[in-house]
């Protein structure tokens, strides 16, 4: 076989290998997309049907605007408007935790990345260790601590523990360690800026992508948190929407036959409540995705 024939055969094998690799990747991607997309599509369509259509109709047949309006009225009429209260509570807890998280995490990550102080390395190791501890393992000691100072049942019993976000500190540490030019900070110090001014006027404006990323992860974690507010809040008036869904579930005859009555919730209404509970996270993601992508790639290269 000549050299030219060898090259042609090698090119053909490479082309076949590349085509098969793309085909496998395409099939795998399609399977994963369908695996996640089909339940979401079913959930959206279920909220537009009545109870009978949901059971006997085609799973992916759309319902009607009238059935959707009935489900909406039933949901927000439940318990004299408890769902509206739960959504407001979720917004309060997630926003309060977000503000405190940013105030604490961003300066902490900056300090560990760009300043030198005693026990700095130990503090960084402790941050990594705490990140590995499941949040549910910390709920009991936090409950005992907050019960001692009389905060159980108040919004602070949820907001303060949610504000403890070591992952945000570590993300900020990585960003400031890899993406902020030291010479720029040194020049600001030479010009007479104090350490706080260097952080506030130089480092913080450059850290907008990572601030957005930490804010997004903090908001999502706080909004979706179930176990902590379930333990800390004894009254349903203080429930966030994630905990309130359990009350709706308990009032659904399909899951709890003894709940049949004037305040019972049908399955399409429960599906609508689930959609509404995740809608704020989706809206925040759609508006912040440009900053999120920038934050995810900001620390990818070293100075």
UniProtKB/TrEMBL annotation:
Top-level lineage group: Bacteria
GO annotation (BP), single: transmembrane transport
Domain ABC transmembrane type-1 intervals: 87-288
Keyword Transport included in the entry's annotation: yes
Pfam family, one: BPD_transp_1
Protein topology in the membrane: Multi-pass membrane protein
Keyword hit for Nuclease: no
Transmembrane segments: 21-45, 91-110, 122-144, 156-177, 198-220, 265-288
Coiled coil: none
Gene Ontology terms: cellular component: plasma membrane
Keyword terms: Cell membrane, Membrane, Transmembrane, Transmembrane helix, Transport
InterPro entries, sorted: MetI-like, MetI-like_sf
Compartment list: Cell membrane
Family statement drawn from the similarity comment of this UniProt entry: Belongs to the binding-protein-dependent transport system permease family.
Name the UniProt record assigns to this protein: Sugar ABC transporter permease
């Amino acid at each position: 076989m000549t050299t030219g024939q060898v090259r042609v055969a090698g090119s053909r094998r490479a082309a076949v290998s590349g085509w098969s690799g793309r085909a496998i990747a395409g099939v795998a991607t399609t399977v994963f997309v369908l695996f996640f997309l089909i339940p979401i599509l079913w959930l959206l369509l279920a909220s537009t049907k009545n109870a009978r259509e949901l059971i006997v109709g085609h799973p992916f047949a759309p319902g009607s605007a009238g059935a959707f309006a009935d489900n909406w009225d039933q949901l927000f009429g439940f318990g004299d408007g408890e769902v509206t209260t739960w959504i407001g509570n979720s917004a309060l807890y997630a926003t309060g935790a977000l503000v405190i998280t940013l105030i604490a995490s961003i300066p902490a990550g900056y300090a560990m990345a760009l300043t030198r102080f005693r026990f700095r390395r130990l503090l960084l190791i402790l941050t990594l260790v705490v990140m590995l501890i499941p949040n549910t393992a910390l709920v009991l000691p936090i409950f005992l601590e907050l019960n001692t100072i009389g905060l159980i049942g108040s919004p602070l019993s949820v907001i303060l523990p949610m504000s403890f976000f070591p992952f945000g500190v570590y993300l900020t540490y990585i960003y400031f360690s890899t993406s902020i030019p030291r010479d720029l900070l040194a020049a600001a110090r030479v010009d007479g800026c104090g350490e706080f001014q260097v952080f506030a006027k130089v480092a913080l404006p450059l850290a907008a992508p990572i601030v957005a990323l930490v804010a997004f992860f903090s908001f999502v974690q706080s909004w979706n948190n179930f176990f902590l507010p379930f333990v800390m809040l004894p009254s349903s008036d203080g429930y966030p929407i994630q905990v309130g869904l359990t009350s709706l579930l308990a009032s659904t005859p399909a899951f709890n036959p003894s709940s049949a009555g004037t305040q019972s919730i049908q399955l399409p209404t429960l599906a609508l409540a689930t959609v509404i509970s995740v809608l704020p996270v989706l809206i925040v993601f759609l508006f912040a995705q440009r900053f999120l992508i920038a934050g995810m790639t900001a620390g990818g290269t070293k100075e």
